[in-house]
Amino acid sequence: MATYAPVLFSVHMIQHMGLAMLAPIFLVLGAPVTLALRALRPAARRGDRGPREWIVSVLHSRVAEIVSHPAFAMVVFISGSYALYYTSLFETAMRQPVGHILMNTHFLLSGTLFFWVVIGVDPAPRRLPYIAKLGTLMMTMPFHAFFGISMMMMMGKSIASSWYDQLARPWGASVLEDQSVAGGMAWAFGEIPTMIVVITIAAQWALSDHRRSRRLDRHADRRGEAELAAYNDYLARLNRRSQEQ
C-alpha cells in the first residue's frame, strides 16, 4: 500500500480511510493513556514531574478541555479532508517526503481525537452522555459521505493533476477514473467505522447501565442493612426497658 499510494489515488484513499477512520477506533478502545498511567511509576521525589505527572497535567489542562470538546473534534476531523484535497496542499504533500509524513500523521491524530471523544475509555476532561456521543457521530459521518460523492462528481478535473500526469502511468485506469473509484471508496468506507462505533456505543451504554444498577442495588442493600440494624437496636432498647420495669 505504501508503494502504490503515491501512484494510485484510490490506494491513497484506502490508506487515508484506514489511518483516519479505522485504526483510531481500536487505538482509543485500547486505552493507551490508562495503560501508561498504570505502567509508569510516580516521580521519585514529591513535586518532581516525570512522564506520569506530565500525562496527568496534560489531561487536566485547559488545552485538553478545548480539544476534547465535540465541536472542536468534529471540525478537525471533517475539515482536514476538504482543506487537503480541494486545495494545493495535497499535491505539495505528495512532492515532499516530510509533507507526506505530516499528512498521514494528521489523518491518524484527527481520527484518534474524534473517536476518543466519541468512544474513548481513557480519562478525559469532559464526558459526553451516550446520546450526545451518538448524535456527534451521526452529525459527522454525512460530511464524509458528501466528501466521497463530491469527489466522484469531479469528472472534468483531477486532484493534484500535475503530480499524477507527470507519472505518466501506462497501466491501470486513467487519473479521472481512478479518482472516481477513490471517491466511491471514501463514500462506502464510512459505513464500516460507523457500524463499529454504533455497536461500541450501544455496548458501553448497556455496560454503564448495568454498573449503575449494581451500584444502586448495593446502596439499597446497605440502606436495608442499616435500617434492619436500627430496627434491631430499637427492639433491644424496648427489651431492656421492659426488663428494667
Features:
245 residues, mainly alpha
What is the structure about, briefly put?
Helices cover 77% and strands 0% of the residues. The chain is mostly helical. Helix 8 (130-152) packs antiparallel against helix 11 (191-244).
Task: Give a verbal description of the structure.
The structure is a single chain. With 245 residues, the protein is an all-alpha fold. It has one domain (9-211). The chain has helices spanning 9-29, 32-39, 51-59, 62-67, 70-85, 89-95, 97-119, 130-152, 161-167, 175-189, 191-244. Helix 5 (70-85) runs antiparallel to helix 7 (97-119), helix 6 crosses helix 7 (97-119) and helix 8 packs antiparallel against helix 11. The longest helix has 54 residues, at 191-244. The model has no long low-confidence stretch (mean pLDDT 84).
Structural topology:
Blueprint: H1 9-29, H2 32-39, H3 51-59, H4 62-67, H5 70-85, H6 89-95, H7 97-119, H8 130-152, H9 161-167, H10 175-189, H11 191-244
Helix pairs in contact: 1-7, 1-10, 5-7, 5-8, 6-7, 8-10, 8-11
- What structural class should be given to the helix and strand makeup? mainly alpha
Cα Rg: 27 Å
How many structural domains can be distinguished in the coordinates?
1
Q: Which percent range fits the helix content?
A: over 70%
Which regions contain 5 or more consecutive residues with pLDDT less than 50? none
Name the shape in a single word.
elongated
Q: Can you write the helix and strand succession as a string?
A: HHHHHHHHHHH
Distance between the termini: 94 Å
* Annotation, overall tally of beta strands: 0
Strand content: under 5%
Mean pLDDT: 84
- Note the quaternary state here: single chain
Largest β sheet strand count, sense and barrel closure:
none
- How many DSSP H or I helices? 11
